[in-house]
What does this fold into?
Amino acid sequence: MSFDTKENTPGTVPANGHSDTTPEARPLLIAIAGNPNAGKTTLFNALTGLRQKVANYPGVTVERKEGNWKFDPGRPAARLIDLPGLYSLDATSLDERLAREVLTGRLPGLPKPDLIIAVVDATNLERNLYLVTQLIEYNIPVVIALTMVDLAEKRDLKIDVEKLRSMLRIPVVRVRTREKTGLSEITEAVRGVILEEREADAFWIGNAGIDASQQADEIHLSLSDDEAANRQIFARYKFISDVYQASVGTFDTERANFSEKIDKILTHRFFGLLILIAILLLVFQTIFTWAALPMDLLDQGFGALGETARASMPEGILTDLVVDGIIAGVGGVLVFLPQILLLFLFISILEDTGYMARAAFLLDKLMSRVGLHGKAFLPLMSSFACAIPGIMATRTIENKRDRLATILIAPFMSCSARLPVYALMIAAFFAGQTVFGFISVGAVLMLAMYSLGIAVAIAVAFLLKKTILKSPPPPFVMELPPYRIPNLRTVIQNMLTRAWLFLKRAGTVILAISIILWALMYFPRSQAPVADESTAARVQLENSFAGRLGQTIEPVISPLGYDWKIGVAIIASFAAREVLVSTLSIIYNVGEEENEESPTLIGAIRGAHDSGGAKVWTPLTALSLMVFFVLAMQCMSTLAVVRRETNSWGWPIFMFVYMTVIAYAAAFATFQGGKLLGFS
Amino acid sequence: MEKIKVLTLADVAAGTKAKVLRVSGSGPVPKRLMEMGIVPGVWIRVVKSAPFGDPIEVRLRGYSLAMRRNEAESIEVTE
It folds into this structure.
């Protein structure tokens, strides 16, 4: 604890945070705290079962897991909260700061916890106990749940629990959460503390047992804050060493353990990188192949839903709004849910096994060349599926500027919404062509588009870190946790939690944007008599606000090779990129059920002529459009998430402007440069 | 008595151990290093460096920690 939180020293805080309220007035609040990877979440799950919910802490986007725990049959269930993993209470990252706020009762809407269950990894006792020494100083009753004891014993670390208990002066219980043993003992220990209304036995480890307030003042007068804080850290570790020596005895830092053996290969200078690339390829390959079938089914499902809705509702604006606006718009995004779920599944597995930290370790040097943190790897990788979860994953980056730089370049990673656009363009203009006789042009172009996004992201990150986000090289101090077999339940739960947050965030915005865009294409209503339904749709679109807007911006986009119809499709695709395909289908009169592999849409695009009889689309137009889609900020949901994560309108606006300007310039260069070189 | 030779953790060869004398500098980074258990008297083994020479992996108190050479330079050790 540092001295800026002096109000929490034992002398100034009433024993037990709730002394001003009766314990019966509200359910007890019990917090689970511990180092990352100590087994907090597994214990939380074991204690609460399915009675839990995930929400966000007010004002910040850190997830808060809360559940009900019936620890005593005669009392109402306690509220159990699972705090983010943390190493100390003085920390700087968003997660860690938040945990401290909760423990000190300073978070609005949440009382100070009545008890803390400190989860301590027995294989890593010393560093895990550091947090415990701080928790003890916080004057809240603490019960230790000692996990991974069996793993420790395999390493010949015999822990004398009784000794630990007497030296720390708090209950210590062995738990084996996977086998669910020790749960009744932990319940017993908690009940003992609560029912006996035992006061927290706080003692000031940091100042080695001398009266806290007095000691603090003396140190304050004679030493700088830094030195005082350092002395506290040393004193805590001195205490821990004493506890460790008395309760364990052996020091086992020497023997190469299981994880170190695996790392001989996985973080090998040469093979490590190869394996990383192979894992990434495998993940993406699996995402795209496994997701294909459920995506088709979802697509058909929404189509059927739309038809059913149209058939069962009276004809009119309301039906059009529901079918063409809401079902088509929201459905168009929900179709990507299988890919996003799979991506989250793989990320959860990679995190839970401990590999993600190795990936950051392997890539940090490369990333730091452009001023990014090794931890930016995970967000950027996620962004290949969707920038929204990617941006949400930047929270682990402590430095605000590093985090912003990562957020600002994340949308350059080609997300899955761009795939339908690439696929349509390639199918229409480059199908069946090869280079050197055996490599398909389509594959080359696909790779080129992904690479272009990455290259521009690197360049922009470099520029940002040299200019507006200039900061000293970010610190990189990161634990490489031991490899573990992932816990299935935790992995699935992580995946579902993230997917749900994605749906909630994206869903609301996409709904709103879908309705606005639908209205732009629906109004004003065209009255002209028309021959058939699909011509009616085309005439309607031409005369709608969106159509007129397309015609207005035609002079701006014609240097890129686009006519006003493509302009309309681009405007529509600012809601979500894949909307380009369905909008082109409407414009070219081929019906709304077409997809990117549909021969009619491809034929219509190839055959489109302008009023002068010249072809609208050439391979060069297609290339220019692909380049535009790689770089432009065409995703309202992403902007909405950036607004939330940065808590400002300035950054999303900046992001929108700079990305669109770069996209325009690059598409301009592609089209005009291509023409100069004699391509068409 | 022979004077002890002071190096930084960044100078310690992979596979060798060193004893921490102090963490120099101030601010959140040295503090985080100390909170992670790098305090005077503790033994640290340098395990390896990452493919491009940076960061490095060290082992102390039974766990593995990665840090950049930049951070390792602020840790004064003796072999």
